[in-house]
Design goal:
single chain; 253 residues; alpha/beta; Rossmann fold; seven-stranded parallel beta sheet; 8 helices; 15% strand; binds nicotinamide-adenine-dinucleotide
């Protein structure tokens, strides 16, 4: 029996990086996964890998900024699997790693806020009615260290700060309905999102990043996925509104 036996999970941004890892780990732990992304080609590959390993997956092309798309995702999940136990709001984009507010144009601000903050708002709003009916649910919002501290990009920091606070607001309002909501705050995790900044091709950036991580290694997608798995599962049934930091100790200094 897996740690998510009998559960149905929606994971956004699951075409690669952390979302794909969560999809595979959740399926391995016996969840049925509804995986979504704007990149439907890569998403189908992830669904194929889940199925080849014996899991159940439904892949849906989905833009998290669209309320209509969200309704389709919820309707499709209900039709295919009959319930929604877990939502992982993982889809996200970053901007330039360092930028000040004078350098940031409005369209870039809007794009980052729309995907990262509005996407999590719309997803949470879309699944809550179904979770209320079953009087249980776990929503895991992927924020960032950037949602806690100041260094970085004004839109990215603001969007991840919004996700952090949305988490606490919804956690409080829906605790009485059996719905738990928690945020996860990864440090630097080696995915395509940060490849240009800390990948093997950028020795200087990589070295600088490592200097800021007491455990002296960059994070991997599975490091985050195991934390998300804990919050998604009933193992965390007494946990809501928390910030789970997964960062190799970066925040300590
Ligand atoms: N990699 C890091 O260092 C790091 C650190 C902290 C937080 N995060 C957060 O972790 C999450 C996962 O990022 P990752 O590192 O796996 O990066 P990634 O770029 O590999 O994955 C992000 C996924 O989101 C998808 N996406 C982008 N816009 C979308 C939209 N409008 N609708 C649906 N899907 C969309 C992309 O296609 C991609 O598959 C993000 O929310 C990111 O902000 C990443």
């Amino acid at each position: 029996m897996g740690r998510l036996d009998g559960k149905v999970a929606i994971i956004t941004g699951a075409a690669g990086g952390q979302g794909a890892m969560e999809a595979k780990l959740f399926a391995k732990e016996s969840a049925k996964v509804v995986i979504t992304d704007v990149n439907d080609e890569a998403l189908e590959k992830v669904a194929g890998e889940v199925k080849a390993a014996g899991g159940q997956a439904l892949a849906l092309k989905h833009n998290v900024t669209s309320a209509e798309d969200w309704q389709t995702v919820v309707d499709s999940a209900m039709k295919e699997f009959g319930k929604i136990d877990i939502l992982v709001n993982n889809a996200g984009v970053t901007g330039q790693i360092r930028q000040n507010i004078e350098e940031m144009d409005i369209s870039n601000w809007d794009k980052i806020m729309d995907i990262n903050a509005k996407g999590a708002f719309l997803g949470t709003k879309a699944v809550i009615p179904e979770m209320k009916k079953s009087e249980r649910g776990s929503i895991v919002n992927i924020s960032s260290l950037s949602g806690i501290y100041g260094i970085g990009n004004p839109a990215y920091n603001s969007s991840k700060g919004a996700v952090r606070q949305l988490t606490k607001n919804v956690a409080l309002d829906y605790a009485g309905s059996g719905i738990r909501v928690n945020s996860v705050h990864p440090g630097t995790i080696e995915t395509s999102m940060v490849e240009a900044f800390v990948g093997e091709g950028n020795k200087e950036g990589r070295e600088a990043a490592l200097q800021g991580i007491p455990l002296n290694t960059l994070g991997q997608s599975e490091d985050v996925a195991y934390g998300v798995l804990y919050l998604a599962s009933d193992e965390s049934k007494f946990v809501t509104g928390i910030e789970l930091i997964i960062d190799g100790g970066s925040i300590l200094q």
